[in-house]
């Protein structure tokens, strides 16, 4: 229901006094506040409030954020899609013209529009001091949009949903987007030369979001290179499976020394060139292998070809840059395998306080022992799901029974024989498990954790909705605990 409909609605039988009070409450709000409320709505909805009363007609010029989305209220009475697009474009023309003398803070376009029209809207918005521009449409940026690159007020830019970048200016001694702090590129069509030129010409960037693989038929737009002295937040999502050879050949080069937050999700590359991330606080890694590792489940460490990185890629330098300073690390289930199969030296996580990772019934925990043994200051261990694929290398953090060998899985034979577990030396105080279902394997894993982690003070368990809570709780609460301070909470 639109805002106009909500505001006009009156329940049958409502007393006159209540109606008067309601009208007074609405009319008593300052115009500036009403303008902020309307700015948070799609512009089509905000404009529809002008039918309420004469006073509401004067509020549209106070709207400083324009959001044009042709999927909302797109003239449903018209069957012809092209005609509907024309009607909506006409509406945008009229709205932009009406606000041509008003400040415009944010301008967002989502839909199919003619290039000259979109360029005209952008030009008008920039003349009104535009600071945020979001083009979520198949708009083509070429030489006709040269003015677009020289805005001195633009701080945040989003280009996505098939936007095509055919031109990036290069003028000696000039910087494009001199005020730009945040850049988001999601499934855009851009050649590698233009991508590198765009990144190199925006030296003041503090946030960069790159996303490939949301359904557009484009090859990866990211060249593997990102640099920025002021960059604090970097998010990269690049999953285009049919271009696997691109990842195998690509060298990832990141020169972002002041990065505070790093979120990287991609297929493993052959090589990473990384600067030291001395300021890094939090990192999220989703590292996907090019092929399955199931055929290596039965290998011993003594004869597994660990140096053959031609098979899976190499993340050694990526972890080496992140490990020494990161305080919070989040890992996908794929990353646990990648860390084991694609790292040729041990990385210390001396400052790591919180480690969280996801489990998947088709993925192993091969990388978990390495992470725990090299995180001497770990305080919080967060695990999403306990069920994972049984391998010969789940390590001494896991009591899984490997059916093919008929002995408990371990990182190596000598550790299994001596029953040594790295968990006994871990300083972990808080263990948090989500998606707990109470199966036999999960209960045995909980028994293993509670019986090995001697510093535990709090265990938080999130239970699956379909699980029998009462029986599940009784079984967990009856498990022996090595730590006398350990309390268990179900959340």
Automatic annotation (TrEMBL):
Species, as recorded: Arabidopsis suecica
Domain F-box, by residue range, is 23-71
Q: What is this protein called?
A: F-box domain
Which InterPro entries does the annotation name? F-box_AtFBL13-like, F-box_dom, FBD, FBL60-like, LRR_FXL15/At3g58940/PEG3-like
**Pfam families in the record, alphabetically?**
F-box, LRR_At5g56370
